[in-house]
Amino acid sequence: MAELIDGKAISAQIKEEVKEKVAALKAEGKEVTLAVIQVGCDPASTVYVGNKKKACAYTGIRSLAYELPEETTEAELLSIIEELNDRKDVNGILVQLPLPKHIDENKVIRSISPLKDVDGFHPQNVGALCIGEKGFVSCTPAGIIELLKRSHVEITGKKCVVVGRSNIVGKPMALLLLRENGTVTIAHSKTVDLREITKQADILIAAVGKPKMIDASYVKEGAVVIDVGIHRMENGKLCGDVDFESVEKICSAITPVPGGVGPMTIAMLMYNCVHSLSLQQ
Q1: Catalytic residue (choose from 96, 158, 227, 243)
Q2: Does residue 124 have an active-site annotation?
């Protein structure tokens, strides 16, 4: 049986560390503040925003909520972001995606100051990651590195395969594994002989967006498997991109869905909020 990598427990550790740092900063008269903007009332987004507010309350980070109606114009949203960029008492700015169709997401992401871009999506932060400079790292890939390290999984010298090439997970994930001295392959929907490639992985990261696509036939015996996907099945239960039941029998360690990668994303967002103070100074 594979070891279960417990994202809930590891994210709780990180939140405790953040809580201590926030308390120490408050003792120095410094307050960490995150501004969260949601446009419209997409149900999934509302849940995510609620979880972020709870995490802020728990760690002692002050949160400012901007809940804007669906018909908010792009110009109005950009004006709010500009005002938050200029505010000295705001350290992090997060715009919950997806945005309504009439608003250009790329333009919005680029309008956030790179020094307040706690999601790590701004091209300047992505570029900094590419060349090994300081900046914010996208929360989900950063959380996966913490899951591996705190579960004592050695990355140096290991064959790492990332299935998926999104800007939010796949690409930054590959760069972070490279930074940790892994030997990295990125596979995707156009990859030929995908199984042959994934079966070479010591560490396999599934971020493909298809429920239970990665079954045991894709996985090398003894590999570490990280499942980034989250889908709701017809019976109402959640599943990931990995067929947990078949893969668990042959891998050495695996993240469950739910309770694996998901909780890490918010924990790393809290970490980024605290990190924003040192970047801004």
Answers
A1: 96
A2: no
